[in-house]
């Protein structure tokens, strides 16, 4: 049945500060990113490829490796996945590992060998695994996942496009450009995850709005990563901050490279943090509409990343020389809180 809907990119204007200019924000229309088409395709529960015959022991080992990688590098998120059904757990681990491997092409230990050709080959491998021809064991886990869940290839291709941006671009003139980058490298993860996590049968929201929330969580997470890593990125000659907004606060790249935290920098950061929180607030709208067994990892991620923003504030907005850090104890304390949020159908609790 054909379903008409519209997905729109939400934007926020940072609060106006006396004697400081208001940040002007422009979002990317989701129609330009073809998000509607992705959602429509993923709402169609169909398989385009016949299942590939593989020994169950091979696939079990593949998923076990994915599980171990997720447990090692995303501990809080991993613990949240333990409430999910076994099939969904495996699928989310497989998606996580593919995304991590993609990111490591640019930011990992072998990033020095990165080139456009490497990404082209990686995209060819992606097409192969979607067509039942995985290259290695970890690819095989995702191939099996693609055959079990209605995953569209475009979010995966878009993430690779984000890696292409990373090797070509080290400055972003405005928030519109930065938003596009955040969509490619993180918003896409939300679009990949919803078909696996599932939508609650009791949900009162339509599917497009839930996809919107998932996309917004990815945007918020990436904006938070950027704010957390300003100092580290500057050492690599990268500034993932809107140039026009820096200028409005009397700042430029040299201020970032000098790693001096001034009053102007603090005021600038307040607006950036407010914008990231806006996207988390939008993500809340759909987090409790997912299948009840899938909500915990989403709330764990949402609360963890919000805490990173809190830590930047606690460091007096010094993200130049200090890394905003959420300690192990605090992370563990978040688990019961995120679980409480995940079993609540109300989004009024803050």
Descriptive account of the structure:
The protein has 350 residues and is mainly alpha-helical. It has a single domain (35-46, 55-342), classed as Farnesyl Diphosphate Synthase, CATH 1.10.600.10. The chain contains 15 helices and no strands. The protein is globular, with a radius of gyration of 20 Å. The relative contact order is 0.13. Residues 1-20, 48-53 and 346-350 have low confidence and may be disordered. GO terms for molecular function: 15-cis-phytoene synthase activity; geranylgeranyl diphosphate synthase activity; squalene synthase [NAD(P)H] activity. Belongs to the phytoene/squalene synthase family. Pathway: Carotenoid biosynthesis; phytoene biosynthesis; all-trans-phytoene from geranylgeranyl diphosphate: step 1/1. One of its GO terms (biological process) is carotenoid biosynthetic process.
**Span of the ends, CA to CA:** 38 Å
Instruction: Please state the second-level CATH architecture.
Output: Orthogonal Bundle
Overall geometric form: globular
Task: Please give the number of β-strands.
Answer: 0
| The CATH topology | Farnesyl Diphosphate Synthase
Output the helix-strand order: HHHHHHHHHHHHHHH
Q: Return the CATH class.
A: Mainly Alpha
- State the low-pLDDT regions, or none: 1-20, 48-53, 346-350
Return the domain count: 1
SS element count, helices:
15
Radius of gyration (Å): 20 Å
């Amino acid at each position: 049945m054909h379903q008409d809907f519209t997905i729109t990119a939400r934007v926020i204007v940072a609060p106006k500060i006396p004697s400081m200019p208001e940040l002007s924000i422009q979002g990317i229309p989701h129609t330009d990113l073809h998000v509607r088409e992705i959602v429509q395709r993923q709402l169609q529960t169909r398989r385009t490829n016949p299942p590939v015959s593989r020994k169950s022991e091979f696939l079990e080992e593949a998923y076990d490796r994915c599980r171990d990688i997720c447990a090692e590098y995303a501990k809080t998120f991993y613990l949240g996945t333990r409430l999910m059904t076994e099939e969904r757990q495996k699928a989310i681990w497989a998606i996580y590992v593919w995304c991590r491997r993609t990111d490591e092409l640019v930011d990992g230990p072998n990033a020095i060998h990165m080139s456009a050709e490497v990404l082209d080959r990686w995209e060819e491998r992606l097409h192969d695994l979607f067509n039942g021809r995985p290259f290695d064991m970890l690819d095989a886990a995702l191939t099996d996942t693609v055959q079990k869940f209605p995953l569209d290839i475009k979010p995966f291709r878009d993430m690779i496009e984000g890696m292409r941006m990373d090797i070509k671009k080290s400055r972003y003139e405005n928030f519109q450009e930065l938003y596009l980058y955040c969509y490619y490298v993180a918003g896409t993860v939300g679009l990949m995850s919803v078909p696996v996590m599932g939508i609650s049968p009791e949900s009162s929201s339509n599917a497009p709005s839930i996809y919107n929330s998932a996309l917004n969580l990815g945007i918020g997470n990436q904006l938070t990563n950027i704010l957390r890593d300003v100092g580290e990125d500057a050492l690599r000659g990268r500034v993932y901050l809107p140039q026009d907004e820096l200028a409005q606060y009397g700042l430029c790249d040299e201020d970032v490279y000098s790693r001096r935290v001034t009053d102007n920098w603090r005021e600038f950061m307040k607006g950036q943090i407010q914008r990231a929180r806006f996207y988390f607030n939008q993500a809340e709208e759909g987090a409790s509409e997912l299948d009840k067994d899938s909500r915990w990892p989403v709330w764990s991620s949402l609360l963890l990343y919000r805490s990173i923003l809190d830590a930047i504030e606690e460091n007096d907005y010094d993200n130049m020389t200090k890394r905003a850090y959420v300690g192990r104890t605090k992370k563990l304390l978040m688990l019961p809180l995120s679980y409480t949020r995940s079993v609540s159908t109300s989004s009024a609790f803050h």
